[in-house]
DNA sequence: TAGGCCATCTGGTCCT
DNA sequence: AGGACCAGATGGCCTA
């Protein structure tokens, strides 16, 4: 079976650098708590390496535990009884795994954000440096793709005339939009009655993709009319 | 100050 | 067993 990561390979590292995102590794400006955690994790791993094994070690040659030596080793053996120490070790292992999982999750989210940034880069915005939120990026990308597809379809139809056969290369009238699976199979990117009524709709089925009227707000080629942020 | 957005942590589930 | 993915919780920052 294919792993998702193989299908949706993350952007190459140099690509991320181009985007000014750096490597997927945690950013250098980590909050101090993260630094502390890394330190803590290192310390914990160090301790795990150095910690006495959960089970008592057998003497190399013979049966039985190596405890007839008469003397207690100073240092680690001092303190809590063995049961408590094994419980403590288990806790440490658990904690160490959690911290590792946290790191992986952080990197995963960084990769996701890098992909979103790459998507933002190819979306036209006004002003150019306006940063879309995550949900805005996804919704606008959806509508943008739909609009481009629609533009292609119209251009193809115009070139070939009313009965042009090659127009079939692009979605035909009435066929589902490129992302008809969006929101559970809605036929249009942003039907006004849907929960996405407030989303970007560069070319809703009611209008033409090239009609500037359908590029509202900061995404319009011209000066943006004031729009409530919620309705971007 | 309320609400939105975001990063991070966390525990659960699924997959290899 | 360990990693990937996911969703809920939480706290910080920002803006109207």
TrEMBL record:
<dbReference type="GO" id="GO:0070888">
    <property type="term" value="F:E-box binding"/>
</dbReference>
<feature type="compositionally biased region" description="Acidic residues">
    <location>
        <begin position="34"/>
        <end position="47"/>
    </location>
</feature>
<dbReference type="GO" id="GO:0007423">
    <property type="term" value="P:sensory organ development"/>
</dbReference>
<dbReference type="Pfam" id="PF00010">
    <property type="entry name" value="HLH"/>
</dbReference>
<keyword id="KW-0221">Differentiation</keyword>
<dbReference type="InterPro" id="IPR050359">
    <property type="entry name" value="bHLH_transcription_factors"/>
</dbReference>
<dbReference type="GO" id="GO:0030900">
    <property type="term" value="P:forebrain development"/>
</dbReference>
<protein>
    <recommendedName>
        <fullName>BHLH domain-containing protein</fullName>
    </recommendedName>
</protein>
<keyword id="KW-0804">Transcription</keyword>
<feature type="region of interest" description="Disordered">
    <location>
        <begin position="18"/>
        <end position="108"/>
    </location>
</feature>
<dbReference type="GO" id="GO:0005634">
    <property type="term" value="C:nucleus"/>
</dbReference>
<dbReference type="GO" id="GO:0061564">
    <property type="term" value="P:axon development"/>
</dbReference>
<keyword id="KW-0217">Developmental protein</keyword>
<keyword id="KW-0539">Nucleus</keyword>
<keyword id="KW-0805">Transcription regulation</keyword>
<feature type="compositionally biased region" description="Low complexity">
    <location>
        <begin position="167"/>
        <end position="210"/>
    </location>
</feature>
<dbReference type="InterPro" id="IPR011598">
    <property type="entry name" value="bHLH_dom"/>
</dbReference>
<keyword id="KW-0524">Neurogenesis</keyword>
<feature type="compositionally biased region" description="Pro residues">
    <location>
        <begin position="221"/>
        <end position="232"/>
    </location>
</feature>
<feature type="region of interest" description="Disordered">
    <location>
        <begin position="167"/>
        <end position="232"/>
    </location>
</feature>
<feature type="domain" description="BHLH">
    <location>
        <begin position="96"/>
        <end position="148"/>
    </location>
</feature>
<dbReference type="GO" id="GO:0046983">
    <property type="term" value="F:protein dimerization activity"/>
</dbReference>
<keyword id="KW-0238">DNA-binding</keyword>
<dbReference type="InterPro" id="IPR032655">
    <property type="entry name" value="Ngn-2_bHLH"/>
</dbReference>
<feature type="compositionally biased region" description="Low complexity">
    <location>
        <begin position="50"/>
        <end position="60"/>
    </location>
</feature>
<dbReference type="GO" id="GO:0045944">
    <property type="term" value="P:positive regulation of transcription by RNA polymerase II"/>
</dbReference>
<feature type="compositionally biased region" description="Basic residues">
    <location>
        <begin position="92"/>
        <end position="101"/>
    </location>
</feature>
<dbReference type="InterPro" id="IPR036638">
    <property type="entry name" value="HLH_DNA-bd_sf"/>
</dbReference>
<dbReference type="GO" id="GO:0000981">
    <property type="term" value="F:DNA-binding transcription factor activity, RNA polymerase II-specific"/>
</dbReference>
